[in-house]
Amino acid sequence: MRHTLAVLVENNPGVLARVAGLFSRRGYNIDSLAVGRTDNPAISRMTIVVEGDDRVLEQVTKQLHKLIDVIKISDITADEYVDRELVLIKVNAEPEKRGEIMQIADIFRARIVDLGRRTMILECTGNEGKIKAFEESLKPYGIKELVRTGKIAMLRGSRYTNINSNGSKEDD
Amino acid sequence: MKKSGAQILVDCLREQGVDTIFGYPGGAVLPIYDALYDADIRHILTRHEQGAAHAADGYARASGRPGVCLATSGPGATNLVTGIANAYMDSVPLVAFTGQVVTSQLGKDSFQEADITGITLPITKHNYLVKDVRDLARVIREAFHIATTGRPGPVLVDIPKDVSSAVIEYEDPGPVNLPGYRPVLEPSAEQLNRAAEAIARAERPVIYAGGGVVYSGAHRELRRFAELILAPVATTLMGLGGFPGDHPLALGMLGMHGSKYANYAVCECDLLIAVGVRFDDRVTGKLESFASQARIMHIDIDPAEIGKNVRVDIPLVGDVKRVLSALIERLKAKLPGAWQEKIQTWKKEYPITYEENGRLKPQQVIREIYRVTKGQARITTEVGQHQMWAAHYYTYTRPRTFISSGGLGTMGFGLPAAIGVQVACPGETVFDIAGDGSIQMNIQELATAVNYDLPVKVAILDNGYLGMVRQWQELFYNRRYSYSELVNPDFVKLAEAYGAEGIRVEKPADVRPALEQALATSKPVLIDFIIEREENVLPFVPPGESLDRMLG
């Protein structure tokens, strides 16, 4: 089963290497990892999607906790949350195909962010399923390049995950 | 007040109560060595940085205080790596300081540059590269705090040369504040009650005790706990001395080279009380059949150890000493019954013994060391057959008297560790029980022992083989002794060349006089015991087998 972890870490140099190294040496599978600063510049938030059964997840969580820079871990998988990825796709766009591509972009509420002589770059955000569907619809035109962020996620409603709150599921 | 980085380091070490450090100078630590030149800290110059790391490790294990080592950048730092990994596997509080190239040269493949924080990432509890001298005091305080609290472990602090030489107006960084680091010391009351209930109900309890008992200082609590519930106590290699080896409830060591009665007890118990252990594969053998009739209770300070290797029915996260005290309060004394009787029968039926045949046996050497030292010596070991014989035939009754490389299994650990132990325990007898292979991995440290008048005694059980490798080749590789036979130097002459005393013993009758002679001098002594060449360590559970399938 895939789990989504929201991990708050001290924004120290090497913290990403510590987390990534932990996953690789203990043989845990990361599906995706996204990291960026929070509103507090001293703290970063990682969204980690990890594959494994409950026992694996328990170990992942406990091992992450052992890293001094890790402040808090919340497994939000079972909760209601919003998740988003962002993708940039450079697609072949000969003048006669542009209309079709723009229609597809419209359906997915994607934006055209660059227009070249024979190519276009489209930007789309959404959950994994939407991003996948968007990619599939553009495939027939010939995708030249694709880049996507990892998944980021946030709890819905008034509950939240930050260092001082217990609004979210508490870490153990 | 103006201070250099090096002076801040020295002052912080004093503030942490550090009286001794083990190290080796070099280019990137020259400013630090200059500050040490007139500091009120004893510096022991080892002959190899690995020796410094192991000596600091031995010092920490014997004293319970953090061990400190210091090396220069690049090769100095990488030479510490085995010692740091060793301390990490055995949860030893070690703080390693390394020099580093100046910050402007970082990442440029500069002379004697190595990314030591990157290299030691998976083998330290935490590590730091200090790029600003203003961070140095805070980092050092954090390093000692992290190394010595919770589950202890090594912390490395990498200090570029321009940071140690920079002079600043010193400001105290205040107390340690680490929001992501909060070791759990107090067990949950709910789990304590569940545990007490399970213990009260158990008919065949066994305690499986490890290094956590020793590190937590819980040996008295463990004894009271065991006596209260009349549970026999099997110890791991790291746990030897955590429970008196001569106690009626003592089962000795369990696992691959455990006693038969310890392994039988674990196989047949209905409640396994694991205390400060990590279910190492050398202990459990085949996992599916390990304590398969038992509920498992696991007491440990590191929550990540619970359920890592085996399913645990009753987890108790907390400091071993506090957990045991809290359990003792909740328990009533048990009366002896069939289980205790069965244990005593097994102990009589399957004692750990060896065959005497008039030739010099390694087991006899260890027994004699035990008798001559009246069981009061601090023993260090290298890794291999001699280590297991030292575990079987010397009876450890006090914690921190058996000091051995458990998790990493580091040949070359024993001699530098013995130096660290001797520094920590000046008036005591310290023996390194060694093999002829292992001793050569750090034999240069004899010079350190001579240099500082440290009267460590080295007993080499010399069979001219890498004995444990040979034993496995005999049993599993059809006696094909591939590269396990050694051509050795003359150890007696070697000892003498270093300025130590050397004695060779070839006959059983000469063992005791040689040991007495060694103890009579205040010099370091090396005794080369030429033992039966193909003696095996028994009992022996073949790898991957269930604990009740013992050879020997």
TrEMBL record, chain A:
A biological process from GO: L-valine biosynthetic process
PROSITE patterns named in the record: ACT (PS51671)
Residue ranges annotated for the ACT domain, each copy included: 4-78
Gene Ontology terms for molecular function: acetolactate synthase activity; acetolactate synthase regulator activity
Matching Gene3D superfamilies: 3.30.70.260, ACT-like. Chain A, domain 2
Catalytic class of the enzyme: transferase
Alphabetical list of CDD domains matching this protein: ACT_AHAS
Domain of life: Bacteria
Reaction(s) the record says it catalyses: 2 pyruvate + H(+) = (2S)-2-acetolactate + CO2
Pathway where it operates: Amino-acid biosynthesis; L-isoleucine biosynthesis; L-isoleucine from 2-oxobutanoate: step 1/4; Amino-acid biosynthesis; L-valine biosynthesis; L-valine from pyruvate: step 1/4
Keyword list, A-Z: Amino-acid biosynthesis, Branched-chain amino acid biosynthesis, Transferase
GO cellular component, as recorded: cytosol
Pfam families: ACT_AHAS_ss, ALS_ss_C
PANTHER family: ACETOLACTATE SYNTHASE SMALL SUBUNIT, ACETOLACTATE SYNTHASE SMALL SUBUNIT 1, CHLOROPLASTIC
Function: Catalyzes the conversion of 2 pyruvate molecules into acetolactate in the first common step of the biosynthetic pathway of the branched-amino acids such as leucine, isoleucine, and valine.
Protein name: Acetolactate synthase small subunit
Organism: Desulfofundulus australicus DSM 11792
From TrEMBL, chain B:
Pfam family, one: TPP_enzyme_C
GO BP of this protein: isoleucine biosynthetic process; L-valine biosynthetic process
GO CC annotation: acetolactate synthase complex
Keyword Hydrolase: no
Cofactors: Mg(2+); thiamine diphosphate
The protein's annotated pathway: Amino-acid biosynthesis; L-isoleucine biosynthesis; L-isoleucine from 2-oxobutanoate: step 1/4; Amino-acid biosynthesis; L-valine biosynthesis; L-valine from pyruvate: step 1/4
GO terms for MF: acetolactate synthase activity; flavin adenine dinucleotide binding; magnesium ion binding; thiamine pyrophosphate binding
Source taxon at top rank: Bacteria
EC number(s) stated in the UniProt entry for this protein: 2.2.1.6
Cofactor annotation comment: Binds 1 Mg(2+) ion per subunit.
Catalytic activity line of the entry: 2 pyruvate + H(+) = (2S)-2-acetolactate + CO2
Residue ranges occupied by any Thiamine pyrophosphate enzyme TPP-binding domain in the UniProt entry: 383-529
Segments forming domain Thiamine pyrophosphate enzyme N-terminal TPP-binding: 4-117
Domain Thiamine pyrophosphate enzyme central per the UniProt entry, residue ranges: 192-327
InterPro entries named among the record's database cross-references: Acetolactate_synth_lsu, AHAS_TPP, DHS-like_NAD/FAD-binding_dom, THDP-binding, Thiamin_PyroP_enz_cen_dom, Thiamin_PyroP_enz_TPP-bd_dom, TPP-bd_CS, TPP_enz
Swiss-Prot/TrEMBL keywords: Amino-acid biosynthesis, Branched-chain amino acid biosynthesis, FAD, Flavoprotein, Magnesium, Metal-binding, Thiamine pyrophosphate, Transferase
Family: Belongs to the TPP enzyme family.
NCBIfam families xref list: acolac_lg
Protein name per Swiss-Prot or TrEMBL: Acetolactate synthase
